[in-house]
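Thread title: Can someone regenerate the structure for this chain?

I was given the following input by a collaborator and told the matching structure tokens would be attached. They weren't. Posting the sequence so someone can regenerate them.
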Amino acid sequence: MDVAIIGGGVIGWGVAYHVLKLSPTLRVTVIDKQPSFAMGSTARAAGGVRAQFGTAVNVDMSLRSITFFEEFERELGTNIGFRQHGYLFVTATQDGADYLERVGELQRRRGVPSRTFSVDEVRARAPFLNCDDLTGAAFSPTDGYLDPYAVCQGFEKGARSLGASAVYGTAAIGSESGSVSLDDGGRLGAGQIVLAAGHWSGELAQKLGIEVPIAPQKHQLAMTEPVSGLPENLPMIVDLDTSFHFRPEGQGLLIGYDDPDARQPHADVPPYFDFGFLERLAPVALHRLPLAARLRFDYKRSWAGYYAETPDHHAVIGRCGDIVVATGFGGHGIMHSPAAGLSVAEILVKGEPSTLDLFSLRPQRFAEQDLVPEPMVI
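Best answer:
Regenerated them for you:
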């Protein structure tokens, strides 16, 4: 085996696909404790895709990925349900309005078609919002949302068609030169190793002999029963001040919120939906979305998952000793999976990423204390 990829979620399979596109003769194996249809945190994502970020590297990663998603079905034969209905950020503070204007300039310089919205434009796009206290808003029409499960399945199908294989039911517990040791006592030869294990990456990195500051952070999403009268082109709507956000899902709404009181279990504990989440969500939801008072929630279709968080809310992509790291996406793994897959493939095949400048994502930045936090975190 030439390349062993630890982690069978969207990043792992995205890397496998792009490696084999660049170098079809390589042998690539994905290693995971569970088969891809379980997919860990990948299948628990909200599926948002946006280029409205606050740092150049995240903007660039998104733009590259959006271009790929637009061609995903043609490239990989899988319909990922990519609906480019936009992201609409709103704020009720002057600081927030000033920030959206300032960060919009960065986004537009790098090619994002974002612009500020007037309150009247917000009302026209989302007539059910409480807009009375809004001071600013921003919208980009090429942002949107998709089916995370389909993206991972598409990458896996594409990678397997190019020759990739998988080893399931076991986990990597260490590495030596040219091999990965597994918890079932086995060992896999590997010229190069990729760590793409999401929220498990922090502990696993230590077993592999490297240090990467990744911590699991629980996030929850509540699904409503059908809601009548939703606009067909409803965007993902984000309250910048509170992190309250929602988008259509089927005939209902998928609602999220960065809950500061969410309990953070150990990474190996399956995430569970905490019904107290709805009580804590209620004040911000009712204020910004008054129709929330009439919503009925579908508890069986609500869920929780883990973000793989870093101290600066940026991913970690680059070589760390003998390991190539691709993790710590903090809830942005789905939307950045095409750019991440290509960049890691370039590191493996060419020695460094050549399409995007990922210097600010290098693993060494933590030891060097050279962090630039991403401010637009949801």
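The chain is about 30% helix and 20% strand.
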